[in-house]
Amino acid sequence: MRKETKAILKEFWGHDDFRGSQETIINTVLSGKDVLALMPTGGGKSICYQVPALSMEGLCIVVSPLVALIQDQVNQLKARGIKAIALTGGIPFTELNDLLDNCLYGNYKFLYLSPERLQQSLIQERIQEMDVNLIAIDEAHCISQWGNDFRPAYLECSILKELIPNIPMIALTATATPKVVDDIVQNLKLEDVSIYKDSFSRSNIVFKVKRTEDKLYQLKKYMGKIPGSSIVYVRSRKMSVSLSEFLNKNGFKASFFHGGISKSEKEKKLRDWLAGKVNVMVATNAFGMGVDKPDVRLVIHYQIPDSLESYFQEAGRAGRDGKPSTAITITTKEDEERAKQQFLSSLPDIAFIKKVYSKLNTFFQISYGELVLEPIAFKFNAFCKRYEFNPNMAYNALRILDQNSVIALSENFQEKTTLQFVASKAGIFEYLDKNRKTAPIIQTILRTYGGITEYETKINLHLLSKKTGENEKSLKKILKQLKKDGIAEYKNTTSDLEITFLVPREDDHTINPFAKKVQDFNQVKQNNMAAMLGYIKNKKVCRSVYLLKYFGENAAEKCGTCDICTKKEKQGSPIKLEERVIGLLRIAPSTSRKLEKATGADEKTLLKVLQQLLEDEVVQLNEMNEYTLRE
After folding, report:
1. Strands 488-501 and 132-137: what pairing?
2. Domain ranges within the chain, ordered by starting residue
3. What single string gives the DSSP state of each residue in 447-485?
4. Within 13 Å, how many C-alpha atoms sit on residue 206's CB side?
5. Domain 574-629 listed as CATH 1.10.10.10
6. pLDDT digit string (tens) for 390-421?
7. pTM of the model
8. Which residues have a Cβ under 8 Å from the Cβ of 20 and sit 6 or more positions away?
């Protein structure tokens, strides 16, 4: 017997009613039809498959591309008291078998897995035994080579139609152009499909592009003008740290977030930001997926993203509560060239991809025909340095290997600590006697790891911290001292990437099947960059109209709020602005920023006027870098 959908929504999510097309989509799914749901970021896509799955007997299979996104969804469901399982990489066979048994006999409602997992014969066999009520393909744009995040493994998702026929399938995405929509329908083999598209329009978000020669000043200015929670997106880890420091020095509570920090640190940073202890998160694109904070008032792109899909998804994290919010791109002309340099000049050809793959196997000492089953910590910078690879180009090559299911690459901070006591038993006892303060901790280590006096042993600092009451930093200090005193051999290594080899090493035979696709991939990247730069350079078309048109939606009206719609008429003639500037400088010397504020003039126009006044020797700059009238 089916449960009433609104009752489910109220019980598990606390909402009284559905939003947008949610209820219509859910009813169509419950009628047994295939559905393609196109909804903006923050539009509540997951509700569209979670609610109908809960209203029916059986299990919902969800295919999703990112481990982080899968884990976030499963954690959210578990927090609501809903039984869900995630099949991610690195699960031993026996554990995998137990998890699949749970899907059959454990009354679980959701099974999340990656498209690569779906290709495994064991998974396919066990799925045929399951009582499946719905198939959900999340981030469905990944199935299209014209999409921003094309993953060829997604092309195999249609196998679910054969394994469990007559079960409705729902595909969901927030970023699909008309071409991508056609690819989704065709490649998933959606039959008699109902396509629902909520407008991608975010009328509560003011979209702006600010061209400037002083980005830090503009960043500080907007942060001061728009209070509340903010995200500043950058393209590099180094930039996330330096901008966070800059904002903190200028009185803003800021933190940074990128893929190279530990899981516990990520969790703490996210908690502090969600709780409002930190107002600003300066982050790479590693931040945001699955993060649900409704009251973000400002999203700033400090550097240009690689595509409008990425930009719109990130900007769309502003104002999920429907209240007025702002999305600003702060840019200089040089930024456009830097973006092209980073994203286009480092697109690898097939010869380079083969070279990277070969060196990758050499790096990990993998022989021809071998398949390493366990995930491996990967020191990317050391890899690039050893083989003299351009890091951007090498990373893009790895991403192509990832997209074509040769490897699985994830940003995952890992720390490995090993210890072996090398002193004799008498030497250890003597050391304990002389170091009474640390003796209980050393004894705990000896008791916990039986063979630690005979061979190098991997130790768990988190476990030892719990057992001893000492924090991990103090434990490392003690272990370093043991090494210094010749009592033990201690090693501590970290990595910020994790790599899993998905197929046996076969060199060229591994790469050749998708060699032709690489050229198409590079063309997509070039098209994406051109569209992104078109948005930045645009000076005539309403920002919202421009974005909606890109996603195949014709906006009836201009937004009336973006920088294009609100562009002031030019400040009279340049002569009138000159007169105003001279009048202000008669009162007191002034910086260009103060003059911009006092005149209300556009920064670019004002700088042109000041440049002309300098050339005409009407004004000069003093030692304080202020404009002053010549005597």
Report:
1. unpaired
2. 5-197, 205-341+526-550, 347-506, 574-629
3. HH-TTTTTS-EEE-HHHHHHHH---HHHHHHHHHHHHHT
4. 17
5. yes
6. 988 998 899 889 878 899 887 666 677 889 99
7. 0.69
8. 39, 43, 44, 198
